[in-house]
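Following up on my earlier thread - several people asked me to post the actual chain instead of describing it. Fair enough. Here it is, all 184 residues.
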Amino acid sequence: MAGRLIYLIGPSGSGKDSLLDAARPRLAERGCRIVRRVITRSAEAVGEAAQGVSPAQFATLEAEGAFALSWQANGLSYGIPKDIDAWLAAGDDLLVNGSRAHLAQTRERYPASRVLLLTVDQAVLRQRLIARGRESLADIEERLARNARFTAQLIADDATGVFLLDNSGPLEHTVERLLHCLDV
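Reply from S.P.:
Thanks for posting it. Predicted structure:
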């Protein structure tokens, strides 16, 4: 039996990396592997445990067909290793930290994928983005507006089968909701 691709999406600052770190041991107990992304960001950058590569290295990997999925967002390039196809065929469940903008392409390639949208109260998200200190207030406000539009559209298209995970409260509660979404 083929494994499942679980595609986690959510706005920057929603806590995807924190959720994945907190859920990692419990996911491993269930035989679900978190896929390590390739990103054109230095390996020393704060955030997820991704494989950092230069833009030139990323372009070479992409040209060689090393990625099952790849996209650009926020000035960076992201890739999901092609190895996931073999892992899924072997029956492994895989959780991928994905991209909202790349959702349609992911569903086209992996129609049976389970999509989890990590949401967070706008006020909480604003505070998290300000605390990171990576963007101007104007950029943060634009990001928040874009997030609100995307979430509203996704919810309006309810037939998409997206599972919503609210990460506005304690992280432990979000981990429990994540595990519940994998059981249904």
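The chain has seven helices and nine strands. That should answer part of your original question.
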